[in-house]
Write a structure and sequence with these properties.
With 88 residues, the protein is α+β, with helices and mostly antiparallel strands. It has two domains: 44 residues, no CATH class; 33 residues, no CATH class. Helix content is 38%, strand content 22%. Helix 1 links the parallel strand 1 and strand 2. It is globular, with a radius of gyration of 14 Å.
């Protein structure tokens, strides 16, 4: 644990893109349940649809620098930002 970090912290499950759709669905449901417990999670994911119900905050990094930061609802309501950084 890092000094000052929450005692319960999760991280991304690697290789999600190669999983079967049913497994991706189950993974998302499990992450939703963990969120409901109040667990802090840091997810690194390019699939906006996958994380839109999971994240509270959005950070977009470019070459290791945060170039955009907002709440998830603000991010989802801003098609210009999604187009600029994610081409979606």
């Amino acid at each position: 644990m890092w000094p000052g970090s929450p005692s319960r912290m999760g991280s991304k499950v690697a290789g999600r893109s190669s999983l079967a759709p049913v497994v991706v669905h189950l993974l998302k449901e499990q992450l939703k349940q963990l969120k409901q417990t109040g667990m802090t999670m840091i997810l690194t994911e390019q699939n906006v649809r996958f994380v839109s119900e999971l994240g509270d905050r959005v950070y977009i990094l470019e070459k290791g620098t945060i170039c955009y930061e907002s709440s998830m609802p603000e991010f989802l309501a801003n098609p210009e930002v999604r187009q600029t950084y994610l081409a979606v």
